[in-house]
Structures are given as structure tokens and as C-alpha cells.
């Protein structure tokens, strides 16, 4: 006789549908602000975490990565892929899911979709970094690459930095049309541009968010002026970058976890000891962020496991006691913990 699973068998699961319902319930900009606060709180206790560069399997056409981290009470990992050509076959470039577990007994306490959540956490991290690095009173952002991440970035920069004017460019005009439509509906001032050069004109912040598995040059040195902040999202793999090296040489460069960024970020083209500043130290007041109005600042974002840990921690808190998660029969739970086999045999008796 099949016995129904006991309470220990169940793990709260947040589906894509529930993640979207939760985001609307909270409000997209409130979600981004609250999530950024969780990320900032975790960055400020950086030394508490186990850290390692993510484990990347480079496969034809893309990469599949595992991103683990832990503090003394919780462990998390994210599974994520990056396949720039996927959109041509109707697939997402990036998909993800993740798990949060109790360190005490290793039991998962949350399983969640993380495709939507990764877009939200990437945007929250970028905008949070910009609160320390972008020019004060920044009002206009250029966005080069108008795919899946684009609108999330825009929403986060408005929520955290007050930016409401966007200058969009993508090599595929349909992507710019899509982003213009979505962002105009959200109340942004949107200027669709016909080249990256036009897009960066008069921008206080430049976000590069393109997907291409190659050393691309989305920005050349002449396109970046004094005082601008660059939020470089798309260069996040060996052999996949967006900025001309000369820009890096005259920027103050801020990174998440140098050990990972030196492998995957824009700085992979620089000497191994080229100076970079870790964002967590800026957040703790131990290193300077933006110092003056003429400085070019660069957030060389690759995405780090602690951002996912914070996002899962935030979602766990939000869904607790709500209908935004569903119990998933994920863990075998025999009456006698050592009689796993007996449980299997009895299941058909
Ligand atoms: N740093 C992070 O934490 C993080 C997180 C998620 C995704 N990413 C990266 O961000 C990038 C964008 O992700 P996405 O999900 O939006 O991808 P996407 O495929 O949905 O969109 C990418 C867009 O870039 C455009 N593009 C490609 N080459 C271009 C060029 N030379 N000039 C202008 N536009 C160009 C494409 O036409 C497409 O519209 C990817 O490279 C992804 O790996 C980084």
C-alpha cells in the first residue's frame, strides 16, 4: 500500500508562475529594492561566506554553470546556462533554477525557478552597484543589448537610482522595438537609437547587455566620456567580452569576486594583477566608490553566487506562509531513516 509522503518529504517549490505572481504582488520596483537590500546586507558580511569561482562546463554554443556558496546556516546553489544563439530556436539565452538548504542537516528548504529571479537579482545588483559608482543625479542610461535582461535593468535603475530616460540600441531592431514597447508602458522616456554611438550620446550610465560568444567590441574607447559609469553585464565567460581594452585601462574597475571575474569578466584581457576594487569593500566603507565627477567607473559584472543566495533567502522569506509556493515531494523519508530499501519495496506491496 502506498503511504502518503510525510512532512519531511516536502520542500517548498516556487514555480515560474508563482515567481511572477509574487513579483506582481510585491510590485516589481519594490521587489527590486527589497532584493537589493538583501544583496547589500550579504555583501556587507562577505567574509562569512564560503566562496569559489563557479564551475563552468563549456559546451558547443554556450556554457552550463553551477554556482554554490554557503554561510554558517544556509547553503545555496544555482544551475544556469548561457547560450547566445538560443533565441533563434525559441529558447532563452539564460535559464536557471536553484536550491537553498539548511547547513545543519543538509535538507533543502526551498527549490525555486531562477530564470526570472536571475534577471531580477542581476538588475538589483547592477543598480545597487550604481548607487555607489554612478554620477550623482544620473538621469539618462544608454542600454546596448535589448534582450531578456534589458527591461529588468531599466526597472532597477529607476527604483534605486531614479533614472527614467533610456537610450536603446540592439543590432536586432525587433529587440529594441520590444524593449521600447515594454518600457514606454512602464512610464519611461525611451529613445530608440540606430547605433551604439547614438545611444551613448549624453548618457550618464551605459549598460552593455549583449549576448555573443566572442570577444565583441560593443563600446570603443572614443564612445566613453569623462564621468560616465559603465554597467557591463554581458561579458561573463572566457572569450566573451564587450568592451575595448583601452576603456578598461582608463576606468576604475569594480568587481564582485576577483577570482571569478579575472576568468570571466572584461578584465580577462588585462594583467592578472591589474588593480580592481571589490564591491563589498565599497559597501562596507573600506574602499572608495566614485571619488570625482570626471572619473570613469566600470562595474565588471559577471554574476556571483552570493547574489543568488540573497535572492533565494529573500524569496524564502516572502513565500513563507503564503500560497506563492507549493509543497514538492522531493525528499525520501522512510519511517526508519535507515530503511530506505524497505520503503521502496513496501511502496508496491
Ligand atoms: N552579469 C550577470 O550577472 C548576468 C546575468 C544574466 C545574464 N548575463 C548576460 O547578459 C547578456 C544578455 O542576456 P539576455 O538574457 O538579455 O540575452 P538575450 O539573448 O535575450 O539578449 C541579448 C541581446 O543582445 C543583442 N546583441 C548581440 N550582439 C549585439 C551587438 N554587437 N550590439 C548590440 N546588441 C547586440 C541581441 O540581438 C539580443 O537582443 C548575456 O550575455 C548573458 O550571459 C549576465
From TrEMBL:
Broad class of enzyme this protein falls into: lyase
InterPro entries with a match to the protein in the record: NAD(P)-bd_dom_sf, ODC_Mu_crystall, ODC_N
Entry keyword set: Lyase
Enzyme Commission designation: 4.3.1.12
GO MF, any single term: ornithine cyclodeaminase activity
Family stated for the protein in its record: Belongs to the ornithine cyclodeaminase/mu-crystallin family.
Official protein name in the record: Ornithine cyclodeaminase
Amino acid at each position: 500500500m502506498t503511504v502518503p509522503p510525510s512532512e519531511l518529504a516536502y520542500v517548498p517549490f516556487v514555480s515560474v508562475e508563482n515567481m511572477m505572481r509574487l513579483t506582481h504582488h510585491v510590485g516589481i520596483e519594490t521587489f527590486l529594492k527589497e532584493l537589493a537590500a538583501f544583496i547589500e546586507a550579504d555583501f556587507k558580511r562577505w567574509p562569512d561566506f564560503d566562496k569559489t569561482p563557479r564551475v563552468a562546463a563549456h559546451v558547443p554554443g554556450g556554457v552550463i554553470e553551477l554556482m554554490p556558496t554557503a554561510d554558517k546556516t544556509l547553503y545555496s546553489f544555482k544551475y544556469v546556462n548561457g547560450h547566445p544563439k538560443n533565441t533563434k530556436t525559441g529558447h532563452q539565452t539564460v535559464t536557471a533554477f536553484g536550491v537553498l538548504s539548511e547547513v545543519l542537516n543538509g535538507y533543502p528548504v526551498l527549490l525555486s525557478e531562477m530564470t526570472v529571479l536571475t534577471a531580477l537579482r542581476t538588475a538589483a545588483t547592477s543598480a545597487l552597484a550604481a548607487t555607489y559608482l554612478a554620477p550623482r543625479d544620473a538621469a539618462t542610461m544608454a542600454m546596448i543589448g535589448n534582450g531578456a535582461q534589458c527591461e529588468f535593468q531599466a526597472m532597477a535603475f529607476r527604483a534605486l537610482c531614479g533614472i527614467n530616460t533610456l537610450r536603446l540600441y540592439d543590432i536586432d531592431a525587433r529587440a529594441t522595438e520590444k524593449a521600447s514597447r515594454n518600457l514606454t508602458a512602464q512610464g519611461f522616456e525611451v529613445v530608440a537609437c540606430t547605433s551604439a554611438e547614438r545611444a551613448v550620446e549624453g548618457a550618464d550610465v551605459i549598460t552593455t547587455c549583449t549576448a555573443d560568444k566572442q570577444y565583441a567590441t560593443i563600446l570603443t574607447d572614443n564612445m566613453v566620456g569623462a564621468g560616465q559609469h559603465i554597467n557591463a553585464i554581458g561579458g561573463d565567460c572566457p572569450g566573451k567580452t564587450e568592451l575595448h581594452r583601452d576603456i578598461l585601462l582608463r576606468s576604475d574597475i569594480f568587481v564582485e569576486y576577483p577570482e571569478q571575474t579575472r576568468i570571466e569578466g572584461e578584465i580577462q584581457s588585462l594583467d592578472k594583477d591589474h588593480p580592481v576594487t571589490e564591491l563589498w569593500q565599497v559597501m562596507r566603507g573600506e574602499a572608495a566608490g566614485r571619488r570625482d565627477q570626471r572619473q570613469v567607473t566600470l562595474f565588471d559584472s559577471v554574476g556571483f553566487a552570493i547574489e543568488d543566495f540573497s535572492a533565494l533567502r529573500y524569496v524564502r522569506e516572502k513565500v513563507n506562509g503564503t500560497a506563492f509556493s507549493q509543497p514538492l515531494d522531493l525528499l525520501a523519508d522512510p519511517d526508519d531513516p535507515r530503511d530506505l530499501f524497505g520503503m521502496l519495496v513496501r511502496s508496491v506491496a
